[in-house]
Amino acid sequence: MNLPNRITLARIFMIPLMLVFLLVDIEAAWWSYAIEIGDYSLPLNQLIAALIFIIAASTDGIDGYIARKHNLVTNLGKLLDPLADKLLVASVLIALAAMGKCDAWIAIVIIAREFAVTGLREVALLEGSVIAASNWGKAKTITQIVAISALLLNNFPFVWLNVPFDVILIWLAALITIYSGIDYFVKNKSVLNFSKM
């Protein structure tokens, strides 16, 4: 297995570790410790989960860059990379919704869009074509990662400015996600030839 695929697998294996820190209630003194600065408070376990998420999200660009630069693109990598991205975003959004930090409908919309576009790409592959990532798709990914990071960090440092940056950005991520999904289907409607179905 080559290096890019190992990095992608590492991203997948970071997901359950992140979820343990986010969702499992462990009776330990350090687990319940919180960083407090004035009105700002961030539980240590949530900070660790946020750091794991940020590291995992940052590996997405790294594995792709290495694969393209050193001609290490494989079919396994083409399958694992988008799967890892979707698992990472979906799992943390579900966790945030369970924690009451994100509206459940936002998590549902974002996850549903990922399933729909993945389905469209699969149909395109069966037809012998590849749907490349669009600029809106890339903007969607970046916005989602920044929004999720802000939610995990309890709106740091914008909490001191009384700006709900995390809420604004997750709404923006949802809107861009919806638009980018529609954009994929409109630009690739020829893939969905219903007369053949």
Automatic annotation (TrEMBL):
It catalyses: a CDP-1,2-diacyl-sn-glycerol + sn-glycerol 3-phosphate = a 1,2-diacyl-sn-glycero-3-phospho-(1'-sn-glycero-3'-phosphate) + CMP + H(+). Pfam families: CDP-OH_P_transf (PF01066). GO terms for cellular component: plasma membrane. This protein catalyzes the committed step to the synthesis of the acidic phospholipids. It comes from the Bacteria. GO terms for molecular function: CDP-diacylglycerol-glycerol-3-phosphate 3-phosphatidyltransferase activity. The lineage of its organism: Bacteria, Bacillati, Bacillota, Bacilli, Bacillales. This is CDP-diacylglycerol--glycerol-3-phosphate 3-phosphatidyltransferase. The chain crosses the membrane at residues 12-35, 47-66, 87-112, 168-186. It comes from Paenibacillus antibioticophila. Keywords: Cell membrane, Lipid biosynthesis, Lipid metabolism, Membrane, Phospholipid biosynthesis, Phospholipid metabolism, Transferase, Transmembrane, Transmembrane helix. Belongs to the CDP-alcohol phosphatidyltransferase class-I family. Its EC number is 2.7.8.5. InterPro entries: CDP-alcohol_PTase-I, CDP-OH_P_trans, CDP-OH_PTrfase_TM_dom, CDP_ALCOHOL_P_TRANSF_CS, Phosphatidylglycerol_P_synth. It is a multi-pass membrane protein. It is found in: Cell membrane. Pathway: Lipid metabolism; Phospholipid metabolism; phosphatidylglycerol biosynthesis; phosphatidylglycerol from CDP-diacylglycerol: step 1/2. GO terms for biological process: glycerophospholipid biosynthetic process.
